[in-house]
């Protein structure tokens, strides 16, 4: 397995998680919830998918990191 590619995937996943959570959420999720033109179901579905994506990006990075740690042994 290409260890450097796996390490770069871990780093990029963590960076994406941080940007998505701390930069993207205030700029995208907050105005989305404050929008009065969207139907409530559409608004909450978009909000839900935003945070599911956030959780999955962190999970991907964590699982790739676990994969790296298991290969070291």
Plain-language structure description:
- The protein has 73 residues and is mostly helical.
- It has one domain (3-24, 38-72).
- The chain contains two helices and no strands.
- It has helices at residues 3-34, 40-72.
- Helix 1 packs antiparallel against helix 2 (40-72).
- The longest helix has 33 residues, at 40-72.
- The two termini are 14 Å apart.
- The model has no long low-confidence stretch (mean pLDDT 90).
Ranges where pLDDT stays below 50 over 5 or more residues in a row are none
Number of helices in the DSSP assignment: 2
State the domain count: 1
Q: Radius of gyration over alpha carbons?
A: 16 Å
List the keywords.
elongated, mainly alpha, 2 helices, 73 residues
Can I get a quick summary?
With 73 residues, this protein is mainly α. The chain has helices at 3-34, 40-72.
Task: Note the topology.
Layout: H1 3-34, H2 40-72
């Amino acid at each position: 397995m290409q260890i450097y590619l796996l390490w770069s995937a871990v780093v990029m996943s963590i960076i994406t998680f941080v940007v998505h959570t701390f930069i993207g959420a205030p700029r995208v999720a907050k105005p989305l919830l404050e929008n009065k033109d969207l139907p409530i179901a559409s608004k909450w579905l978009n909000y839900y998918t935003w945070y599911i994506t956030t959780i999955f990006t962190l999970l991907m990075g964590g699982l790739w990191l676990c994969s790296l740690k298991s290969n070291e042994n």
